[in-house]
Specification:
17 strands, 11 helices, 336 residues, M1 Pyruvate Kinase, Domain 3, alpha/beta, TIM Barrel, 2 domains
Amino acid sequence: MDIHVTAGPACLSEPRLRELLNAGVSAIRLNMSYADEGMLHSTVSRIRTLAPHVKIGADIRGRKLRIGAVPNGSVMLKTGQEFRLYSDEDTKKCAEGCAYVSYTLNVNTGAIILLDDGAIALTVTEINDSEIVCRVETDAELTSGCGINTPGFPIDLPPLSEKDYRDIAILSKLSIDFVYLSYVERASDIIILKETLRQHDMKDIVIAKVELAEAVKNLDEICAVSDAICIARGDLGVEVDLPKIPYVQRHIVKTAKQHGKPVLLAGEVMLSLVKRYKPFRAELTDVICALEQGVDGFILSDETAIGVDPANAVRHLHALIGEFERRGHTQYRSSF
């Protein structure tokens, strides 16, 4: 059973990283949306020294949209407040009432823009040349680099951005075992990435992250060319109506199995452990239900990147998997 964990501030110090690796992780996930070259080199070197058997994967951002920096890293938004998104990269505009977006959003007046996996909702009230004026619908904390979703409005971007190509060039100098690709829409996205990896003499092992409604529609063709599938429930929960998420998850697992591809589950697996030391009871049931569906592994994100005790999160997940195995269930397979 695979347990992938995300590297972040909570686990990058050598004592914390050593404890995390000893807790029984299968792979470390490097999120290229946040990592810089220095952090990548030091983290990969440390992992290879402390636990050579642990695999390292890099998450390529793909079509994922994120806002730029906000003052002091985070800002509180209030219901009814005006908030502006602008595509003209001018750091002088960075203030409490606005944020930079690296892509001109294709939306209409009245459209809903969702930030941070839907935790923040903005309603578009006015559209200017390089600026979208919005109304904040819920009190929330906005942090630098959080994701953007525009349900119902397509993002006309290539599968790999200029940043992705720069990231791949950096990763080619490191010992990376595989990559995840975010915001996959179709099989050609995976094919383009694999060709790019081979051009850099890298392993062309790709885990396709299914988090867009378009990817669910094209699931068969994506499974055919990918090495594994990740059900990324964070963005998927914004793209698909919430009551449908459990059924979409089951459909993805079944389809991946039909293609003989391992499937990993990500997104709020044990999110309570970001701030707690014991998981919610509902999270325990969710993990077991996923195992019964045929999931081959899990990816922990905030639980290990910013959580209070990353190794503790892994131990809780291991305990659940162990209980599942003791009851005679061993149908899962390793990702690679």
